[in-house]
């Protein structure tokens, strides 16, 4: 479904991504991990065009996202994204956050958008908070709203950029529970995360990155039991400690 | 000090007749000042917002157009801009329009010129605020700025609450007198230039404090990314996500700008528009009571502006939550 072909990215002289290739099939859950600054966030933001790249290519459903007839807004509305810092719209209520793009981008009418939104809020357990503003919610609640907001666009793929790393420990599980459910329903997911418990539970594959390169890509079980590279062993060792 | 404090003049009837008193004349000037402030503020908001969006637009040409506007109207002193709008523009325009402008009654003409000059001058500052507001979008940033102790010292507020021209006149006329009296300096020592410099530095640094503060409140691409990730195009993201937040964040600073214009209106003095300041000064010049009249004018500006500043602070507290 998504194919990254030896993608490289530079910030001026600094090479942020080196020759990265990954393929993600429909319904697969792929975890991207590695030390901070390894380029994993940049890599998944390439998929919906939030970051650009200088060489290589990215295919979405077999078609290059760089080809002339691919419009980025069109592509992005089919790819959901959840951010580390939630990025809810603070001037809109929870319900407003879930309906604005449905109405303005998908041109759904207000009643339909609202119905869809309430259904999703139900699903993430926040129906009662529909009228509140983001600042009135806890971090965990905000992130669940953000997931619901992405789902309101009926995405084909979901990107998660460290969805739990800005959360207090006691709130991480409520967000992960929503993500596990999503994975089990067959959503195609690309997740940058260090939640190894989550990874073991749902991931099909793990991509380990360091210094802009993909060091190893492996079957989830195999990666955790016996990582092939020295860097990955070192990294996992630090995580467990 | 043996000065002739003739406050009674305020209640006396105007020399030209019509039964009006001088205090009525001053109040009339104050009304004109208010009309000028409001019209110029509206124009500045409109022009500033348009160019601010241009500045934030990801196109070099748009950015360059916006930058040129800001640079032109911000780097030329307001007083020069008044002269240009008043004397130069009618001459440069096609003769028909020029003649038409000249045929308007002088007082309307001067009023329009003042609105244009103030509007475009202030628009340049608002443009930068809009751009900063768009590029920024605070939240945790506001708290971070507060954590850095970034509140305006009261001294700055006081300086900002008195119009520049008055500050200059004060420093030129009053301060040297006081210094001479206190230190017994001989009249041959010229300290007026130094006092004027001090006035300018104080005022400019007050603006700087504001601008730097606005610059720190910011830097988050997240909202743009979130809007884009939902499939919104640039226009939609700007219209539904970015501008509503930017305007809310900038409301206090826009109000501050309104106060600034209120002060800058005093500059119309130089093109003979009878605003509050000029009328007050005229009385002083005629009766040789410039000092008390300047003090009176200063006090009125100060009361109005610090009242408005209080309103702005209240607004800031409300939008901060």
UniProtKB/TrEMBL annotation, chain A:
<keyword id="KW-0029">Amino-acid transport</keyword>
<keyword id="KW-0547">Nucleotide-binding</keyword>
<dbReference type="GO" id="GO:0005886">
    <property type="term" value="C:plasma membrane"/>
</dbReference>
<dbReference type="InterPro" id="IPR003439">
    <property type="entry name" value="ABC_transporter-like_ATP-bd"/>
</dbReference>
<dbReference type="InterPro" id="IPR030679">
    <property type="entry name" value="ABC_ATPase_HisP-typ"/>
</dbReference>
<feature type="domain" description="ABC transporter">
    <location>
        <begin position="2"/>
        <end position="236"/>
    </location>
</feature>
<dbReference type="GO" id="GO:0016887">
    <property type="term" value="F:ATP hydrolysis activity"/>
</dbReference>
<dbReference type="InterPro" id="IPR050086">
    <property type="entry name" value="MetN_ABC_transporter-like"/>
</dbReference>
<keyword id="KW-0813">Transport</keyword>
<dbReference type="Pfam" id="PF00005">
    <property type="entry name" value="ABC_tran"/>
</dbReference>
<dbReference type="GO" id="GO:0005524">
    <property type="term" value="F:ATP binding"/>
</dbReference>
<keyword id="KW-0472">Membrane</keyword>
<keyword id="KW-1003">Cell membrane</keyword>
<dbReference type="InterPro" id="IPR027417">
    <property type="entry name" value="P-loop_NTPase"/>
</dbReference>
<dbReference type="GO" id="GO:0015424">
    <property type="term" value="F:ABC-type amino acid transporter activity"/>
</dbReference>
<keyword id="KW-0067">ATP-binding</keyword>
<dbReference type="InterPro" id="IPR017871">
    <property type="entry name" value="ABC_transporter-like_CS"/>
</dbReference>
<dbReference type="InterPro" id="IPR003593">
    <property type="entry name" value="AAA+_ATPase"/>
</dbReference>
<comment type="similarity">
    <text>Belongs to the ABC transporter superfamily.</text>
</comment>
<protein>
    <submittedName>
        <fullName>Arginine transporter ATP-binding subunit</fullName>
    </submittedName>
</protein>
From TrEMBL, chain B:
<feature type="transmembrane region" description="Helical">
    <location>
        <begin position="108"/>
        <end position="127"/>
    </location>
</feature>
<keyword id="KW-0812">Transmembrane</keyword>
<feature type="domain" description="ABC transmembrane type-1">
    <location>
        <begin position="30"/>
        <end position="312"/>
    </location>
</feature>
<feature type="transmembrane region" description="Helical">
    <location>
        <begin position="25"/>
        <end position="54"/>
    </location>
</feature>
<dbReference type="GO" id="GO:0043190">
    <property type="term" value="C:ATP-binding cassette (ABC) transporter complex"/>
</dbReference>
<protein>
    <submittedName>
        <fullName>Binding-protein-dependent transport system inner membrane component</fullName>
    </submittedName>
</protein>
<dbReference type="InterPro" id="IPR000515">
    <property type="entry name" value="MetI-like"/>
</dbReference>
<keyword id="KW-1003">Cell membrane</keyword>
<dbReference type="Pfam" id="PF00528">
    <property type="entry name" value="BPD_transp_1"/>
</dbReference>
<feature type="transmembrane region" description="Helical">
    <location>
        <begin position="291"/>
        <end position="312"/>
    </location>
</feature>
<keyword id="KW-1133">Transmembrane helix</keyword>
<dbReference type="GO" id="GO:0006865">
    <property type="term" value="P:amino acid transport"/>
</dbReference>
<dbReference type="InterPro" id="IPR035906">
    <property type="entry name" value="MetI-like_sf"/>
</dbReference>
<comment type="similarity">
    <text>Belongs to the binding-protein-dependent transport system permease family. HisMQ subfamily.</text>
</comment>
<dbReference type="GO" id="GO:0022857">
    <property type="term" value="F:transmembrane transporter activity"/>
</dbReference>
<feature type="transmembrane region" description="Helical">
    <location>
        <begin position="157"/>
        <end position="179"/>
    </location>
</feature>
<keyword id="KW-0813">Transport</keyword>
<feature type="transmembrane region" description="Helical">
    <location>
        <begin position="249"/>
        <end position="271"/>
    </location>
</feature>
<feature type="transmembrane region" description="Helical">
    <location>
        <begin position="66"/>
        <end position="88"/>
    </location>
</feature>
<keyword id="KW-0472">Membrane</keyword>
<dbReference type="InterPro" id="IPR043429">
    <property type="entry name" value="ArtM/GltK/GlnP/TcyL/YhdX-like"/>
</dbReference>
<feature type="transmembrane region" description="Helical">
    <location>
        <begin position="191"/>
        <end position="212"/>
    </location>
</feature>
